[in-house]
Known about the structure:
Elements: E1 4-7, H1 12-25, E2 30-34, H2 41-46, E3 49-51, H3 57-67, E4 71-74, H4 80-85, H5 87-108, E5 111-113, E6 116-117, H6 141-160, E7 164-165, E8 167-169, E9 171-173, H7 186-196, E10 199-202, E11 210-214, H8 215-227, E12 239-240, E13 244-246, H9 248-256, E14 263-266, H10 270-277, H11 286-292, H12 300-316
Parallel strand pairs: 1-2, 1-4, 2-3, 4-5, 5-7, 6-8, 8-12, 9-11, 10-14
Antiparallel strand pairs: 11-13
Helix pairs in contact: 1-8, 3-5, 5-6, 7-9, 7-12
Amino acid sequence: xxRILVTGSVGQIGSELTMxxxxxxxxxxxxxxVNRTKPSETLRDSGPFEIVDCTKMDAVNDVVKKYNFDTxxxxxxILSAVAEAKPNLAWNxxxxxxxxxxxVAREHKCAVFVPSSIGAFGPTTPLDDTPQDTIQRPxxxxxxxxxxxxxxxxxxxxxxxxxxxxxxYPGIISNxxxxxxxxxxxxxxxxYEAIKKKKYxxxxxxxxxxxxxxxxxxxxxAIDIMEADPGKLKHRNAFNVTxxxxxxxxxxxxxxxxxxxxxxxxxxxxxxxxIAESWPNNMDDSAARExxxxxPTYDLSAMTADMLEKLTERISTPDKQARTx
Length: 325
């Protein structure tokens, strides 16, 4: 990777990934692609940004021609809970937007990173040790777009030779950027509420296990797979990756090790609960480990210690508050 475009650069993953890419490859070599939302001051001041609406092919093509990119990290997407409320928007952004990016990448010979998700699985998928290659029959619009996107990426590699790579992300937990409408958002919110109020009302039931990952490992996965030797990639696209699996009770117990007075109750959201129950309890990520050396750094204990330390400092200092996209 030498000249990089990041679409969705103001989102939960994109905002932090863009900054890390700029540290590695140089500020001027990483362009933050934004749609309608203004980038944060940090993102704006650290390097170039461009207005890029991925649902408009001409807009994608124009910016790729302007900067002569060799790599596109395509993170613009509508997440699970929002996708259920706005399925037409989800299809337009998640599928039509991806198609436009792949078409432009084909023409300009760009490599492409496309994240998929645990949402690509469904209720008939094996929930424990979910295999890399298994049945995928999701029952949500988000899941439908993710499976369709995986197939589309495979097609563009096999039919046109576009160097498309990707991972299936679990829930992502960040101490910097707030989440934006996902089913796993509770695993971020709980830390803020534990520090601020010493209590939290969870919208998922106890016993709802989901794969999770801390943001530094999320960023690491994206960079590592794009830098991997392509000759070793048997799957190339939609690798299972994970770092930990827990339910609300387990994360609450971990927080109590540092905040003993923390309490949690439940007010279950039936929409997000149904989505969560259709997703794996934990994925088998052995293919990613074998083919490109995937190895996460953070487990639940290490992540919780870092989250509480960083958020306590940020919450106590108004000008360091976590930013929203």
